[in-house]
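no rush on this but wanted to send it before i forget. theres a chain ive been looking at and ive put its sequence and its fold in token form underneath. i want to understand how the tokens follow from the sequence so walk me through it. thanks a lot i owe you, the record is right below:
>
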Amino acid sequence: MRDEAVNRVKVVFTLFDADGNGVLESGDFDLMSSRVAAAVPDADETRKNAMRAGFTRYWNTLAGELDADRDGRITYDEYQACVLSPERFEGAIGEFAASFARMGDTDGSGRVARPVFTGMLRGVGFDPPNIDALFEALGPDDADRIAVEAWEAEIRNFYAPDKGGIPADLLAGSAVG
């Protein structure tokens, strides 16, 4: 497992712990999906609902795989063990990545505009300089948009234990610029 992957997981655990109590709970995922949906008012309800379902499946996979005592709480150590094990988490990450990236395609063009991308990732809690660095790494076109497929692939890469030196690392590094 690469150090970069562990670092990415630490960052996202902290962000998903939306209420800051040190553990992940169902309510954290509800709060996070509400923040992201609010950041993209132009997204249609079908895409917002798919994104919310992606967050729900993410939580349900964690709870089903890790919450042996059924207390509804996941610690960092439990979280790392699951999300960095593709065989346990690949389906949930796939749905999450697809629904999240596709929600940003507000006009059905297969592209995501920078303001939408920024709003969604700010809704998650990432820092603007890191968001901008990732957007640039994903190769925006002349209209300052990125391909949904490229973003979806990079979300999947974010959770890959064998990946390092990838654009997604920009979100987990110290603030860029």
